[in-house]
């Protein structure tokens, strides 16, 4: 099995290469001073340095639960399992459903697809349309699999956001078929207009809702979570504790201190949204100016911009681009069979305005 | 599949229970001030908060490698994979050798056995004797499995340390059979007299050597590592990145700063050794005084004391003990088939002198 294209790229490109490849948040937005203040507070507490509970520290689970409840999705600490990034959340679930069949969107998140392969799940890809997964295809597939993995908010890679109608339809199908939905939601806070209602909130006993602080605070904390019915959470603990006993205690206590001030966190989230919206708009302008043959939908949030260079093999093109010191992820990586196509995923959050303009011009020069 | 007895106990007992059960290091020895000083230094570095490399940060891998080299086991950064505790190191290896047969000691580390079960490995237990695994049994088993998992230094649970002769014999068998040895070594620094030579250093291309900062610094950092041949390390990366992309960056950068001062770390290790030796001696004295029917070998390092209450079912006994507010791990937990016996593992590092005396008296009262 091959490693992830993105992870390999991240490890092989030099610092002079303009990268639209990774899903890196902007370092300028890391609230380092506030995190430092929070960190200073944990050193008086010996418990922050000892082994802890497998499901995570109680105070942090309470805070995460409270955010759900505030949004109208009643949740308590026993519905939350802290994980080592939402990557691990996905790994735990894939291990839990080892060797099962699973319905996924196409294109889908590369990391999840690798996890599913590693845990012998058989993926059934259903076409993702502009307003969410094709419902007819989903219904037919889900009847057999009874298990689905989707990213309804600013999807990775396509930036697609599900319509309210499709959210309702998905919930209804999962309920009727008595199946399970894995709703991956690392980007839901990064909206430009409004926050969407999670599908999981409509089917709380039949869903796993995955969240992360990697995109809203800093990735290196490696803290994500699973929100699910208490019995479902309990059934995952044996896997969680086998993998790493518990997630980093230092990170959990830092986060717990940081989140004491809700207003500060909300302001920080708004700063990210404003900054990313500006970046997205600029990226679109530069594309329209220098690469008008690239067809895409303008993102409404998240970190990615996705589209198509018709008649071009974007996988072949990226090899040329790497030589010219610019890189993106070719669309074929996000499909189960990886047949080359003209699709491209651009990350717009990490590069500077200058790099964005220069990078797009460089891509054009490779055509 | 059942969860780990120790993890469940840890989550269910109240704070008034004297616990000899977990493998908890002493909180009094956590170098919190020095860790705080190290932590202060990471906040100027944005890289410490961004996504990082799957194998871990370069500087930390170099420092770990240098410690091996200094001890006469030539190692460079590419031989090191940073893991989320050595628990994850074991998980990664179990996933890598999924569904294979594996030779293990009996008794063995409960957490590893659970990981092997979860990843469908078939365990073949070989009797652990006072100077290490029974060589004849090991040789016969390894001829078939070509894969073994052992803990040669102050073993968990038995505190057994392999003789130099048995170390040589194991290395010879692994070499001759062209197999692989997984050498788990979280306690090797916690010696009272001398550090043992790792078996892996004799067979560097046929071994995985597992280390951890959980027992020597603080567990909540969740940082361990695998030392192996570069090609073997590379073959593990797909699994490592699938599980959590990379281990906590905050922890890695804190550790990297802390380890800048080698002398400080060496002094700290000596403090732990001195403290634990005192605790071990005291535990032995109290056992001899209040529970003379418990037969054991005096530990030479590590965190555990292991022995036998002949004619007693230690699993039945622990249920009574829990009611009286004292707990240990019954020996049957460390065997593949878990048939009750009279064996008991005591952790001596975490309780106070007062608690040790009181706890042993309470156990006696349950007999």
UniProtKB/TrEMBL annotation, chains A, B:
Required co-factors: pyridoxal 5'-phosphate
User: Keywords in UniProt for this one?
Assistant: Aminotransferase, Pyridoxal phosphate, Transferase
One GO biological process this protein is involved in is: alpha-amino acid metabolic process
Instruction: Report whether Transferase shows up as a keyword of the record.
Output: yes
Pfam families with a match to the protein in the record: Aminotran_1_2
Domain Aminotransferase class I/classII large: from-to ranges: 31-360
CDD domains from the xrefs?
Answer: AAT_like
Look up the domain of life of the source.
Bacteria
Gene Ontology molecular function: any one: pyridoxal phosphate binding
Q: Does the keyword Protein biosynthesis apply?
A: no
Concerning InterPro entries, the annotation shows: Aminotransferase_I/II_large, Class-I_PLP-dep_aminotransf, PyrdxlP-dep_Trfase, PyrdxlP-dep_Trfase_major, PyrdxlP-dep_Trfase_small
**PANTHER family the record matches:** AMINOTRANSFERASE, KYNURENINE_ALPHA-AMINOADIPATE AMINOTRANSFERASE, MITOCHONDRIAL
Name by which UniProt lists this protein: Aminotransferase class I
């Amino acid at each position: 099995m091959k490693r992830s294209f993105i992870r390999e790229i991240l490890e092989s490109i030099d610092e002079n290469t303009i990268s639209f490849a990774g899903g890196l948040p902007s370092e300028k937005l890391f609230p380092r001073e506030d995190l430092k203040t929070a960190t200073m507070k944990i050193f008086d507490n010996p418990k922050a340095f000892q082994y802890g509970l497998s499901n995570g520290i109680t105070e942090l689970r309470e805070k995460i639960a409270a955010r759900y409840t505030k949004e109208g999705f009643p949740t308590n600490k026993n519905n939350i399992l802290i994980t080592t990034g939402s990557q691990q959340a996905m790994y735990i679930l894939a291990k839990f459903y080892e060797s099962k069949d699973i319905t996924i969107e196409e294109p889908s998140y590369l990391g999840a697809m690798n996890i599913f392969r590693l845990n012998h799940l058989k993926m059934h890809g259903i076409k993702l349309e502009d307003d969410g997964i094709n419902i007819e295809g989903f219904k037919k597939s889900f009847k057999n699999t009874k298990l689905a993995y989707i990213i309804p908010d600013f999807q990775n890679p396509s930036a697609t956001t599900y319509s309210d109608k499709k959210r309702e339809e998905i919930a209804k199908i999962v309920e009727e078929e008595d199946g399970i939905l894995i709703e991956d939601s690392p980007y839901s806070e990064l909206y430009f207009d409004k926050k969407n209602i999670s599908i999981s909130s409509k089917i709380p006993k039949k869903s796993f809702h995955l969240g992360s602080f990697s995109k809203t605070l800093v990735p290196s904390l490696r803290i994500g979570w699973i929100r699910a019915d208490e019995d479902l959470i309990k059934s995952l603990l044996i896997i969680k504790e086998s993998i790493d006993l518990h997630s980093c205690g230092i990170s959990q206590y830092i986060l717990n201190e940081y989140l004491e001030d809700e207003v500060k966190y909300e302001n920080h989230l708004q700063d990210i949204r404003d900054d990313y919206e500006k970046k997205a708009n600029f990226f679109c302008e530069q594309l329209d100016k220098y690469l008008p043959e690239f067809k895409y939908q303008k993102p409404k949030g998240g970190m990615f911009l996705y589209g198509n260079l018709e008649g071009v093999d974007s996988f072949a093109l990226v090899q040329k681009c790497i030589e010219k010191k610019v890189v993106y992820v070719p669309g074929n990586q996000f499909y189960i069979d990886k047949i080359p196509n003209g699709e491209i995923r651009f990350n717009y959050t990490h590069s500077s305005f200058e790099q964005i303009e220069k990078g797009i011009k460089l891509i054009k020069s490779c055509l």
